Amino acid sequence: MGERRASVGRRANGWMTMDNPNLDERATTSAERESRMTTDGWTERCENAGLVFWLGNFYLWYAVIGAAFVPLGLYFTALVKSVFVTNGTEHGPHAEQVGIVVMIYAWILSAIFIYPAYCVFGPSMWLKNFFLGYIAWYATLDRKTASSGKRFARWSRRLPFWRILAEYFPVRLHVSAKLDPSGNYLFGYHPHGVIGVGALLTFATEATGFYEAFPGLDLRLLTLSMNFKFPFTREVLMGLGINSVTKSSVETNLTRAPGASVAIVIGGASEALDARPGWATLTLARRKGFVKMALRTGASLVPVFAFGENDIFEQVENPEGGRLRNFQMYIKQLIGITPPAFYGRSLSRGMWRRIFGRKGVLPKREPIEVVVGNPIAVPKVVDPSNEVIDKYHALYTESLKELYELHRRQFHRLNRGGSSDDLLSDLLTRQGKLQTMQFK
Q1: CA 150, CA 173: separation in Å to the nearest integer?
Q2: Does pLDDT of 96 surpass 60?
Q3: How far is CA 107 from CA 72, 153, 244, 358, in A?
Q4: What is the pTM assigned to this prediction?
């Protein structure tokens, strides 16, 4: 893995922009040389850990599925090998970035299906008892931890593969103003997109330089409580500083200490169903709970818009009132999560490309420009009235509109970082998809 760092530059319009250029090959001071040696050692250890992770997952999939998995496992191993081979990769940094995406998909599937299956049906009785005891523990004694801001491992946000993942699209951060590190802030992220990639990489990792732009902030990204009901994944989420989006969690994480802040993807699962390239349909008109929590804690509201978040996946048409949308809404009411029928791109070459063509499960390589707006000062009101909530909701909505209209043409231009076939296929349609913001 190449060495990377976040640097802060300034554009003509006064914005602070967090970029991720490669480090200069020259180390001009002993401190820089020592820092680079430390980075080399950290990167090498992460590569070794990644290799152990992949081999362990390969064994577990083989143990659960059997010999039928081996050909597919070898194929995906060939895709991720560039993550472990730092020199002489055939296709350059893009192969490494694709390898990281494949590894993340593999971990998600493993954590949800393979790890539990191996623990329950595997040959070890003690492992089965441990797993069942672990579930009983977190279902009873550890339920509130996901709302407390605890069990956060800051080092997990600095893992090198987060920067590689951010460079896949790439994801870039743009800051309108500095924030007082002693203040408390509620960042509202829009739009949700299909899976909220920009929110994850901006707020739950150090891949875009958010914590360099806002030193002193101790932020927790909040997500659906359902995500903390899955074994293993809940521990990873909390380690990254991701908590549940309950009322108690918002209040706790905004009042822990000076600088304590939260980021919420306001539109949530409902908004994911309207995520389409070039569109900005936001579920916001009736979402006022976050404003109420900001008033109760006195936290400033900060609008954030991610241009390109909706561009990395396509969705099957699901008009409101149609069968697919009705089914998706039924599932949302049942378990709190919507199942968007989405697709992205396939690999640029290889078996899957020949079988399935250009469509696949990989996200498209479209830039995600995360723009952080100016803070809106909010007074502390223990029991805010509906009129006060409506007032600050209107202020927030207007500020978000201004942020979007000011920068949408700049960030919807066709300066795509993806492969040429992704760009050419979308060139004509994308020119007609520069939409104004809509609210639901």
Answers
A1: 26
A2: yes
A3: 15, 19, 21, 24
A4: 0.85
Q: What is the DSSP track for 320-337?
A: TTSHHHHHHHHHHHHHS-
The size of the chain, in residues, is: 440
Q: Quick one: average pLDDT of 325-351?
A: 82
DSSP state of 429: H
pLDDT in tens, 4-60: 333 333 333 334 454 433 323 333 333 333 444 445 555 667 677 788 889 999 999
Instruction: Measure CA of the first residue to CA of the last residue in the chain; give whole Å.
Output: 43
Residue pair 318/350 in contact (Cβ under 8 Å)? The answer is no
- Answer with the residue of higher pLDDT: 104 or 95: 104
Beta-carbon contacts of 49 under 8 Å, excluding residues fewer than 6 positions away, are none
H or E segment at 397?
helix 386-411
List helix spans (H) across 317-385.
323-335, 351-356
DSSP secondary structure code for residue 206 in this structure = S
- CA distance to 122, 200, 291, 292, per residue, from 373 (Å): 51, 18, 16, 20
State both tokens at 11: 């554009």
Looking at the predicted structure, is the pLDDT value of residue 71 above 70? yes
Place of tokens 């949700």: 192
Strands 342-345 and 242-244, bridge-based pairing: unpaired
Structure tokens at 99: 């390898």
Asked whether residue 413 carries a pLDDT value surpassing 90, the answer given is: no
Residue 200: is its pLDDT beyond 50? Answer: yes
The mean pLDDT of 257-285, rounded to a whole number, is 92
CA distances 420 to 286, 342, 358, 365, Å, are: 41, 21, 12, 10
Beta-carbon contacts of 57 under 8 Å, excluding residues fewer than 6 positions away, are 106, 107, 110, 114
DSSP state of 367: -
In the three-class reduction of DSSP (H, G, I as helix; E, B as strand; rest coil), residue 379 is classed as coil
Is 2 in a helix, a strand, or coil? coil
Strand runs labelled E in 149-292: 171-175, 185-190, 218-223, 242-244, 260-265, 281-282
